[in-house]
């Protein structure tokens, strides 16, 4: 990169670069380092925005009379509360198996989903691109498309689909001011923390995006959406922690008594 | 087959009859005229379904409709200023000669030469280092040699360098053009003004070129190394910028980088010093980063270090750049939790982390939470930490029991102090255990183990 910089500055050939470059190396190093300083401007410090999302697939069996494509499936990324994600997400790119025609599918409007028919299971690459004023790199996820239910004893039925969903949360720590204003009052996001820098934030009711029809609350497949609650995990974890704590306490006591034993023996013999 | 038998001279039954028969079918088969029999046989002895070429037409060729002949004729060219008459062969088509200038005259490029009048000279071109005669001579030669300055420099008296000649000529020409140009003329398009001649730069450039060309192979190699190193460093720095590494290390790089103010002489003796400088940059930054307990790569330590190894998990593996204390800008909580786990557990060793996973299973907790909300992730991380703690406690208890057993056996055994901190990898403890046994076995009555008390204190306080 520095070579290119030097080349442009002096309009000289590549062969001459090295000699002059040696003489100019310090200057260039300074140039590069100046560019390295991260732009911390325009960010709301001390604040974290959490957007819970769910991504996965729903697959319907097409029945005995189906041809080569035995299943019709939909893969999607949705908000966990079925709100509109387009306030944050600009587009979602689904990367399908190369045997599909045009395996890179871009969905640029909510609801961010893709329906296809096929017969095979594969890993779908999902890349979430944010709006430019969020100013972040795209996020990558992977989801294994499941067409066949685990329980092989139950015969396939066209009425009940195979649903696989994964819950996760997009966390924007110290988001850009521009998008923060939009997100803080939108039901899709949860904001934690206190903005440490004085901000002039837009008023609460200023979310100008028209939300009609963009959320997934009345989606065709909403009946199949799974509920993701942290309660189960949380309960398990707290119980486990309690048990561990109890075991640790017991061990500490044991350690203490062993200590005393050792001391006693040492005292008597010395 | 028949031919073979003929060659051998073997009589064949009904030979005569067959040869006769052969003649007629051969004649019968030989349909096409114009191509040989064997060639026709290539198609299988049958006429092709789609007649590609009429076999009759192959031999004939359409005679050209025009009449072409060649004539030895004189010609003239606009490129010559004298009236020299030259001759050459000319292709005549239908009794008409080709018209137009000699075909190669267009390649006769001429340079517009600029000449000045006396007034112009006195007004614009008077120069301290150039006399009138010299300038005149220069311009004459430029016209004569089409601005080939190398040739002019060779023949110029008194001898002047190419750069000087060029500089004089171009500056003079520019001055003249500018003076002559009216207010309407736009000179900015003229090549003299678009690419202005910078004599100092030219001198420098040629000097540099000379250096490079006269370098030995050794120096070439050194140069290549230094450049590669610099490129690696800038790439690593870019990566660090992309990874949003903490600003401390980049600022450190800034300081270290600006210190080598000494520029190596163009004779390239300082090359090796430059090589060492980037290396020291690397080491200082890496030293600064290690205290931060993170699997993140130091920005310039090694050329290619990608983001921290994310533990093998098939589902969400989004790759937010790993930073120790500060989370990346945007990330998926599940993936971020995985990295945090790794950074917490990895200092303890592979075996311990596997043990932690085992214990999680025993408690019925998934190694990756199904619903990674903030609360769940925090709890999960805490649980792992506590499990680690538990494991260490177990080890200590075992160690203590061992100690007790040894003491009971041999009350005077000396047990070396163990600075037991929770952060210490378990490997250390095992070494201690081995050494205590060794000392116990070969122990003599050495009196009071003075090191005893402090170690106990440390363990208890924990």
Summarize the structure.
Chain A has about 270 residues and is α+β, with helices and mostly antiparallel strands. Chain A is about 30% helix and about 25% strand.
Detailed description of the structure:
The complex is a heterodimer of chains A (270) and B (462). Chain A is an alpha+beta fold and 270 residues long. In chain A, 29% of the residues lie in helices and 27% in strands. Chain A has four helices and nine strands, in the order ααββββββββαβα. Chain A has helices at 2-10, 14-36, 177-183, 230-269; strands at 47-61, 71-79, 89-95, 104-107, 112-118, 123-130, 139-144, 162-173, 190-193. Helix content of chain B is 53%, strand content 4%. Chain B starts with a helix and ends with a helix. Chain A: Residues 43-186 form the YEATS domain. Chain A: Pfam families: YEATS.
Task: Compile the SSE list and pairings.
The complex is a heterodimer of chains A (270) and B (462).
Chain A: H1 2-10, H2 14-36, E1 47-61, E2 71-79, E3 89-95, E4 104-107, E5 112-118, E6 123-130, E7 139-144, E8 162-173, H3 177-183, E9 190-193, H4 230-269
Helix pairs in contact in A: 1-2
Chain B: H1 2-8, H2 15-29, H3 37-41, H4 55-59, E1 68-75, E2 86-93, H5 118-125, H6 132-144, H7 149-155, H8 162-180, H9 191-194, H10 199-213, H11 217-243, H12 247-258, H13 271-289, E3 330-332, H14 333-345, H15 350-362, H16 374-409, H17 426-441, H18 452-461
Antiparallel strand pairs in B: 1-2
Helix pairs in contact in B: 11-13, 12-13, 14-16, 15-16, 16-17
Taking Cα atoms only, what radius of gyration of chain A do you get, to the nearest Å? Answer: 28 Å
The overall pLDDT average of chain A reads 76
List the total number of helices of chain A: 4
Give the strand content of chain A. Answer: 25-35%
Percentage of residues in helical conformation of chain B:
40-55%
- The ordered H/E elements of chain A are HHEEEEEEEEHEH
- What low-confidence regions of chain B span 5 or more consecutive residues with pLDDT below 50? 14-28, 257-323, 419-435, 440-462
Alpha-beta content class of chain A: alpha+beta
Pfam families (chain B): DMAP1, SANT_DAMP1_like
Main location (chain B): nucleus
GO biological process, one term (chain B): negative regulation of transcription by RNA polymerase II
InterPro entries (chain B): DAMP1_SANT-like, DMAP1, Homeodomain-like_sf, SANT/Myb, Swc4/Dmap1
């Amino acid at each position: 990169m520095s070579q290119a910089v030097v080349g442009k500055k002096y309009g000289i050939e590549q062969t001459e670069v090295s000699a002059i470059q040696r003489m100019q190396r310090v200057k260039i190093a300074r140039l590069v380092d100046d560019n390295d300083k991260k732009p911390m401007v325009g960010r709301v410090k001390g604040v974290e925005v959490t957007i819970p999302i769910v991504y996965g697939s729903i697959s319907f069996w097409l029945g005995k009379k189906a041809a080569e494509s035995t299943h019709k499936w939909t893969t999607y990324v949705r908000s966990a509360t079925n709100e509109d994600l387009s306030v944050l997400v600009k587009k979602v790119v689904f990367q399908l198996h190369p045997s599909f025609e045009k395996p890179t599918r871009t969905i640029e409007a909510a609801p961010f989903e893709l329906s296809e028919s096929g017969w095979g299971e594969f890993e779908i690459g999902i890349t979430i691109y944010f709006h430019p004023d969020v100013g972040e790199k795209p996020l990558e996820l992977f989801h294994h498309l499941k067409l066949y239910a685990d329980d092989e004893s139950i015969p396939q039925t066209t009425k009940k689909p195979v649903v696989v969903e994964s819950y996760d949360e997009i966390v924007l720590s110290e988001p850009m001011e521009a998008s923060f204003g939009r997100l803080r009052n939108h039901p899709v996001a949860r904001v934690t923390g206190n903005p440490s820098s004085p901000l002039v934030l837009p008023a609460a009711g200023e979310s100008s995006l028209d939300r009609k029809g963009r959320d997934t609350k009345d989606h065709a497949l909403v009946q199949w959406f799974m509920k993701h609650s942290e309660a189960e995990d949380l309960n398990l974890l707290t119980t486990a922690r309690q048990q561990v704590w109890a075991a640790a306490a017991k061990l500490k006591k044991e350690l203490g008594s062993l200590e005393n034993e050792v001391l006693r023996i040492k005292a008597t013999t010395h | 087959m028949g031919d073979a038998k003929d060659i051998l001279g073997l009589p064949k039954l009904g030979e005569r009859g067959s040869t006769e028969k052969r003649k007629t079918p051969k004649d019968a088969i030989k349909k096409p005229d114009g191509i040989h029999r064997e060639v026709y046989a290539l198609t299988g002895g049958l006429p092709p379904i789609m007649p590609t070429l009429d076999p009759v037409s192959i031999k004939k060729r359409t005679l050209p409709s025009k009449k072409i002949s060649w004539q030895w004729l004189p010609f003239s060219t606009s490129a010559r200023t004298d009236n020299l008459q030259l001759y050459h062969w000319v292709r005549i088509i239908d009794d008409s000669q080709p018209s137009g200038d000699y075909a190669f005259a267009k390649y006769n490029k001429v340079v517009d030469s600029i000449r000045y009048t006396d007034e112009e000279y006195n007004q614009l071109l008077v120069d301290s280092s150039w006399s009138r005669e010299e300038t005149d001579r220069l311009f004459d030669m430029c016209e004569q040699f089409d601005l080939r300055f190398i040739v002019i420099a060779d023949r110029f008296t008194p001898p002047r360098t190419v750069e000087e000649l060029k500089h004089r000529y171009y500056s003079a020409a520019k001055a003249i053009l500018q003076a002559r140009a009216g207010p309407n003329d736009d000179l900015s398009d003229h090549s003299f003004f678009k690419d202005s001649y910078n004599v100092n730069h030219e001198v420098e450039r040629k000097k540099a070129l000379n250096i490079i060309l006269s370098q030995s192979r050794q120096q070439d190699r050194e140069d290549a190394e230094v450049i590669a190193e610099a490129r690696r460093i800038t790439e690593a720095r870019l990566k660090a910028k992309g990874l949003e590494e903490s600003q401390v290390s980049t600022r450190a790089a800034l300081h270290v980088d600006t210190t080598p103010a000494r520029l190596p002489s163009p004779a390239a003796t300082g090359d090796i010093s430059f090589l060492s400088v980037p290396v020291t940059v690397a080491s200082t930054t890496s030293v600064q980063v290690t205290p931060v307990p993170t699997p993140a790569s130091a920005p310039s330590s090694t050329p290619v270090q990608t983001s921290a190894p994310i533990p093998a998990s098939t589902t969400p593996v989004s790759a937010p750049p790993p930073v120790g204390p500060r989370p990346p800008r945007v990330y998926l909580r599940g993936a971020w939790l995985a990295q945090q786990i790794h950074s917490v557990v990895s200092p303890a060793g592979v075996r311990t982390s596997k043990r932690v996973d085992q214990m999680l299973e025993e408690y019925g907790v998934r190694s990756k939470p199904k619903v990674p909300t903030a609360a769940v992730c925090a709890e999960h991380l805490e649980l792992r930490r506590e499990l680690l703690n538990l494991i260490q406690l177990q080890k200590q208890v075992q160690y203590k029991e061992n100690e007790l057993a040894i003491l009971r056996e041999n009350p005077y055994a000396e047990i070396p102090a163990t600075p037991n901190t929770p952060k210490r990898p378990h490997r250390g403890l095992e070494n201690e255990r081995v050494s205590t046994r060794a000392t116990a076995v070969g122990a003599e009555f050495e009196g009071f183990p003075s090191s005893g008390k402090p170690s106990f204190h440390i363990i208890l306080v924990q």
